[in-house]
Amino acid sequence: MKYRPENTPPESLRARDETELCSTQHARPAKSFNDMHWLKQLGVRTIATTGVQRLFMTPFESQVTSLLFHRFFGPGESVSCGRERIRKMCGWLSQKFTVLNADQFADCLPTQEFPERTLLITIDDAHKEVLDVIDVFQQFGISPVVFVPLGWIDSASSQQPEPTLAAMVTLLEHSDDCHWKLEFSNGVCVDLKSQGRLSGIDTIVELCANSEGFTAELRNQLTEFDAKSRDLTSEFCTWHELQSLHQMGVSMGSHSVSHCRMAGHSAGRLRYEFEESRRVLIQRFGTCRLFAYPYGTRDVHDAHTEKLLHAAGYDNAFLVHAGFGLNGKRFALPRVDIPDLELNDRLFRALSVGAQIPLIHSKNVFRKEHRRHPKSDQ
Fold it and tell me: d(Cα 21, Cα 104) in Å, to the nearest integer?
């Protein structure tokens, strides 16, 4: 897909000529989504029925719902068709829910006194597709929060004069070719191949986080940085594009520095991921109150990460597990994940009201019981 140049003014991010949009295709392959496949096998009527049951289990009026989007167009779906589908989606959401922005949501957290049928729209990773739909959300008074992976955005932004530490740490975290042996003037040598990626990056962060001199030494050694980082991050928004979105009412939250799995990282690395991303977002956008765990599964957080997030100044943090409400867990809030598929109206509405939640929970219980009592080999 051909995206607009970085110097495009904010107002031109709005709807483009529909003829151009109709001819634009998103050619990315379909992603695997096991829960979605499982739901489709059960059928929409079953899902809708279960959703009604869910509404009786948790009164709709008292629910606090957060929806999670990554992308907005199904594989091969034209932008114009996707925009029309999202327009219907937003119209229904605005009728059925009280949609809050990030600050309103965070303000309600201390007392947990939310309006009836509260909804927060969240968008992870800041893919460029958000630029093609933000005006549709605006038409219905919906202001999403975008959770920003700092290193990917630094790498995607060509106006950066040189690679930042955040971008280099992100490259080391995600590069398949982790063969670097890095030597510094104080005698420290980091061999990522023999030392291991986690330990090696921990050493680099500890060394470079407060030293521009060591950061420059790291930059000089990563001679392959530009080609690899641009390839990894070409599909993400730049800082200029995020600033344009912010001017249109979109809030920014942190998605860490390097989009790493938090489990297993040292306290020093976690503080860097939490504090540096928040510092940069406050510097660029004035505030950063919310955090979303990369990958978002239950195993990426624990009491230690929650303590560090609170110390870093965040008001709350989101996981990616289906559920409603708060249950007092400010740093492990659930979100309903909307898959990157061309969903019809009925299926989207069923997912939004939590139709899949009892089914997914039942599936998880079955898996746990199966692990506890595996079939005997007879």
Answer: 34
